[in-house]
Write a structure and sequence with these properties.
Elements lengths: L5 H30 L12 H14 L2 E2 L5 H5 L6 H14 L5 H7 L5 H7 L3 E4 L5 E4 L2
Parallel strand pairs: 1-2
Antiparallel strand pairs: 2-3
Amino acid sequence: MRYFTTNQIRASLLLCVLAAAGWGIRYYLAGRQMDNPLPFAPITADSAVVRAADSIRAALEAPVDVNTAGTEELQRLTGIGPELARRILEERRRRGAYANLDQLTRRVRGIGPATAAGLADRVTFNQTDGTIHGTGR
């Protein structure tokens, strides 16, 4: 039969003592954390977080003026990706502002009936003289 050496016994005892100490410290700290919980502040309807979220939501849902929007604004619209946004801007630069959704659909390749239907409530066509020719409908 083989026995442990003195050094092996000491090492085993040291590991047992360290494990017991670790569990004891963990148990002690767990009890203290329950005595002093972190402060909790509920989010109310008038809090700054809610107001900021509402303003972001409103900005994202606001109609986009196709005649003044940049690439990022156009890409927020459903069905408009980077390439289609680039085409819209290029056509606007070449031939001027769009009068309505029908004109946008005819002038920009890639905007078909399905995309136009999705854009109808989300776009406006403000002219350079300041007049608004309505929404996309």
